[in-house]
């Protein structure tokens, strides 16, 4: 039996840990986020079959998060979790808090795993993109030697957005790691960081 | 009296500075439109690699559906979105971004975006957008005969 991949948005850490434990033991995959902001960002990855959304959360509450997702055409089930009555439209179901796992599991049974469609990247397009990455890495070496960091960061940013589309998730992940610290590190650490990035990329298997 | 839907070639504009991204998105769209249970089958694709050429193509072609990268070499995708919506308020614009910061999502919605896709492209994300587009297009073009 294939279980749902759940996105669990809840600011109560203990409740989240308990839910994760129970759900994972029952075979569900669970991704936990602490607020509505993170729930929106995570939901837009479309990796989850269903969202369990606490209504009262900091930064962005569950109702605002649900409404934002619906406005963006998010068409997967969103289940509210609340101790209070929820009257807003847009939720597929409301679970009354406190949650009891057996009841939650019974309710989850009515939802199905989202049908997944696979897409192949045409071989010639992937090959053309890999050549582009190889050329870009040479260009990055040149930019690093000249310490042209703005141009360097712009190319890395492009990797982050595009490489994953062509099956080069490793390059995309390295670009993400590079970007998370790049703007905050002091100037003297830019070159070692750039060299680290280039070496890591070169170690990746592209073909 | 039965409601019918006027169907004609859908015009799709792809705006991304990277040629490979546009090619891949076009390939994905074509694959999904032909292999899944979507109503619309006939499309014309137009492409632009920066904001200025996108604006020109938009004015000339008046597309129904736009995939618009949020970061373009000569300007912000969100500013461009506002220009598109001024010219054609019923255009369905999907913002495409490498990162889904809430600021970007909020700004896109405020500027009139219909949807928001975070790269990498996956069939599930694109299908959700296409289903949403069909519902939107049906609603816009439903006429009584």
Q: What is the CATH architecture annotation of chain B? A: 3-Layer(aba) Sandwich
> How helix-rich are the residues of chain B, as a percent range?
40-55%
Total number of domains of chain B: 1
Largest sheet of chain B: 5 strands, parallel
Order of helices and strands of chain A: EHEHEHEEHHHHH
Instruction: Count every helix of chain B, treating DSSP H or I runs of 4 or more residues as helices.
Output: 5
Quaternary: heterodimer
What characteristic shape of chain B results from the CA principal axes?
globular
Low-pLDDT segments, ≥5 res of chain B = 1-6
Protein model, in words:
The complex is a heterodimer of chains A (207) and B (145). Chain A has 207 residues and is of the alpha/beta class. Chain A folds into two domains: 5-108, Response regulator (Rossmann fold), CATH 3.40.50.2300; 123-203. Helices cover 50% and strands 12% of the residues of chain A. Chain A is built from eight helices and five strands. Chain A is elongated. Chain A starts with a strand and ends with a helix. The model of chain A has no long low-confidence stretch (mean pLDDT 93). Chain B is of the alpha/beta class and 145 residues long. Chain B is 47% helix and 26% strand. Chain B has a five-stranded parallel sheet with strand order 3-2-4-7-8, sandwiched between helices. The longest helix of chain B is centred in the last third of the chain and has 19 residues, at 123-141. The relative contact order of chain B is 0.19. The chains are: A alpha/beta (207), B alpha/beta (145). The A-B interface holds A 37, 40-41, 44-46, 60, 68, 71-76, 114, 116-122, 125, 128-129, 132, 157-158, 160-162, 164-166, 169, 172 and B 18, 20-21, 23-24, 27-28, 31-32, 35-36, 71, 97-102, 105-106, 109, 113-129, 131-132.
């Amino acid at each position: 039996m294939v279980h749902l991949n759940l996105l669990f948005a809840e600011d109560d850490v203990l409740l989240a840990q308990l839910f994760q434990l129970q759900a994972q033991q029952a075979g569900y995959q669970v991704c936990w986020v602490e607020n509505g902001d993170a729930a929106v960002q995570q939901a837009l990855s479309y990796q989850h079959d269903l969202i369990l959304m606490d209504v009262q959360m900091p930064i962005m509450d569950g109702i605002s998060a649900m409404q934002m997702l619906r406005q963006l055409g998010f068409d997967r089930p969103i289940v509210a979790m609340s101790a209070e009555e929820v009257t807003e439209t847009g939720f597929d179901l409301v679970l009354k808090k406190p949650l009891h796992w057996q009841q939650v599991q019974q309710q989850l049974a009515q939802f199905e795993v989202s049908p997944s469609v696979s897409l192949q990247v045409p071989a010639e397009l992937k090959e053309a993109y890999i050549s582009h990455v190889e050329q870009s890495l040479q260009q990055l070496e040149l930019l690093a030697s000249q310490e042209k960091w703005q141009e360097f960061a712009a190319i890395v940013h492009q990797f982050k957005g595009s490489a994953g589309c062509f099956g080069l998730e490793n390059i995309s992940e390295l670009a993400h790691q590079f970007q998370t610290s790049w703007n905050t590190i002091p100037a003297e650490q830019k070159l070692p960081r750039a060299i680290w990035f280039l070496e890591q990329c070169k170690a990746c298997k592209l073909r | 009296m039965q409601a019918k839907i006027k169907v004609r070639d859908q015009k799709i504009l792809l705006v991304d500075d990277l040629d490979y991204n546009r090619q891949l998105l076009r390939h994905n769209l074509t694959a999904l439109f032909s292999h899944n249970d979507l109503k619309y089958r006939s499309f014309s694709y137009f492409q632009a690699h920066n904001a200025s050429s996108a604006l020109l193509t938009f004015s000339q072609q008046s597309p129904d559906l736009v995939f618009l990268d949020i970061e373009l070499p000569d300007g912000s995708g969100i500013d461009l979105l506002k220009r598109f919506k001024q010219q054609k308020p019923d255009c369905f614009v999907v913002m495409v971004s490498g990162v889904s910061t809430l600021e970007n999502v909020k700004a896109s919605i405020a500027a009139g975006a219909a949807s928001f896709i975070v790269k990498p492209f996956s069939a599930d994300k694109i299908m959700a957008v296409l289903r949403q587009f069909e519902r939107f297009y049906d609603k816009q073009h439903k006429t009584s005969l």
